[in-house]
């Protein structure tokens, strides 16, 4: 690292030390100030910073910081979901009180555009979101603005999160009829995963590499061939906030596109498609680990011609299900 990059990492580590000493991670003036400083420090794009190559001490700090960020994010969403559900009219009309709502609008549009591009205009009937939390903004944004006839099934292991989320959408005559909540560990969901055309995996489901890969392997085993898996990842210093998903983690999936935003949308997006399984149980193809680094302003499709033909044949056979 050069001096500027070293200074950035030192600033992040200093902020971790301050955050780790907080008595609580629930929203408060101190919590809000420190996490705002952390996000503003990490968000400027710097593709030269590769957190995976840093020393063990920094790696350990990063893992602890991701866990703390996940806990704080859960408290923040729970706090604002509780406020929203107290509105007497439709709570969804007041989503803009959530401080990161505009980020979710931008992320939803980005993910919808990627999805449309890679589904060749086909509209998914059934979508699953794993790790939806008490404020399922991705599902809400997609259902209300982009996928207006699609049914969304939200999975979360926390019953209190699902109770709040369900109450949040209950007053909306459209969304409440197309959005369902399931309190379950996704590792215990098997056959029903085959019914989803698209599966979203939240960034904080699987806080470390081992847990993330374990969930991906489970999804690969039970998703339908040709179904799309959308994942959130992180790039550069933003990887101090969220786990990284690499193409090599996606065994049994064809990685279609990777996008690294350069604006205030923090998460990178990885879109992949489950490969078909031949009669002897082996997988046709696999992820490419020989990816060029992503240009932060472009979408990189990485599908080779032979595998693309296989996927297109699968899409043709599934077209009636989407229409």
UniProtKB/TrEMBL annotation:
Protein origin, superkingdom: Eukaryota
Catalytic reaction list: 3 S-adenosyl-L-methionine = nicotianamine + 3 S-methyl-5'-thioadenosine + 3 H(+)
Gene Ontology molecular function terms on file: nicotianamine synthase activity
Keywords on record: S-adenosyl-L-methionine, Transferase
Gene3D superfamilies, per database record: Vaccinia Virus protein VP39 (3.40.50.150)
EC supergroup of this enzyme: transferase
Enzyme Commission number(s): 2.5.1.43
InterPro entries in UniProt: Nicotian_synth, SAM-dependent_MTases_sf
One GO process term, biological-process aspect: pollen development
Function: Synthesizes nicotianamine, a polyamine which serves as a sensor for the physiological iron status within the plant, and/or might be involved in the transport of iron.
PANTHER family hit by this protein: NICOTIANAMINE SYNTHASE 3
The family this protein is said to belong to: Belongs to the nicotianamine synthase (NAS)-like family.
Protein name, entry field: Nicotianamine synthase
């Amino acid at each position: 690292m050069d001096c500027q990059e070293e200074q950035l990492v030192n600033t992040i580590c200093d902020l971790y030390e301050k955050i780790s000493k907080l008595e609580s991670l629930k929203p408060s003036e101190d919590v809000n100030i420190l996490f705002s400083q952390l996000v503003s420090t990490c968000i400027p794009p710097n593709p030269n910073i590769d957190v995976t190559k840093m020393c063990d001490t920094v790696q350990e700090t990063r893992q602890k910081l991701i866990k703390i960020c996940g806990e704080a994010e859960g408290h923040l969403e729970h706090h604002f979901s509780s406020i929203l559900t107290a509105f007497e009219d439709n709570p969804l009309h007041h989503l803009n009180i959530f401080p990161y709502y505009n980020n979710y609008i931008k992320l939803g549009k980005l993910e919808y555009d990627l999805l449309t591009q890679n589904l060749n205009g086909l509209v998914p009937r059934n979508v699953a979101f794993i790790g939806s939390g008490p404020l399922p903004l991705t599902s809400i944004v997609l259902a209300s603005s982009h996928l207006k006839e699609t049914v969304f099934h939200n999975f979360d292991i926390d019953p209190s999160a699902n109770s709040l989320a369900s109450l949040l959408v209950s007053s909306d005559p459209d969304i409440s009829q197309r959005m369902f909540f399931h309190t379950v560990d996704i590792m215990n969901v098997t056959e029903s995963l085959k019914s989803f055309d698209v599966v979203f995996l939240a960034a904080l489901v699987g806080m470390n590499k081992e847990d993330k890969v374990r969930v991906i392997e489970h999804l690969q085993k039970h998703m339908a061939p040709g179904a799309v898996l959308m994942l959130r990842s992180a790039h550069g210093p933003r990887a101090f906030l969220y786990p990284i998903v690499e193409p090599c983690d996606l065994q049994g999936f064809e990685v279609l596109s990777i996008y690294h935003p350069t604006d205030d949308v923090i998460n990178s997006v990885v879109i992949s498609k489950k490969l078909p399984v031949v009669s002897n149980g082996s997988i046709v193809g696999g992820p490419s680990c020989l990816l060029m680094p992503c240009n932060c302003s472009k979408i990189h499709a990485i599908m080779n011609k032979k595998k693309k033909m296989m996927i297109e044949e699968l899409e043709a056979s599934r077209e009636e299900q989407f229409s």
